[in-house]
């Protein structure tokens, strides 16, 4: 059951976190991320995140513990959605850029 809890949570978190990157990449728009904000990098990072999410959910053994696994998947998804909707992802990236600029200049 511990595996269902951990992998379900991480699968939901990773899946929802990957969606904005994948969608912006497919739409050929920039979106902030640690590896650069180009559309191609976002599309690839989003796709990799969705694949990882699928693998995590596959190994979460959802049929053995459906309520727990799906509940924690929903909690992980909600946390990722709240993080992105709050603007904290963009703020942390801007802070890192400012720090790099301050060190370089």
Summed over residues and divided by their number, the pLDDT gives a mean of 89
Q: Kindly estimate the percentage of residues that lie in beta strands according to DSSP.
A: under 5%
- Uncertain stretches of 5 or more adjacent residues: none
Give the helix/strand class: mainly alpha
Radius of gyration: 16 Å
Walkthrough of the structure:
With 105 residues, the protein is mainly alpha-helical. Helix content is 79%, strand content 0%. It has four helices and no strands. It is elongated. The N and C termini lie far apart (52 Å).
Give a topology summary.
Layout: H1 2-26, H2 39-59, H3 66-85, H4 88-104
Helix pairs in contact: 1-2, 1-3
Features:
single chain; 105 residues; mainly alpha; 4 helices; elongated
Short description:
The chain has about 100 residues and is an all-alpha fold. About 80% of the residues lie in helices and about 0% in strands.
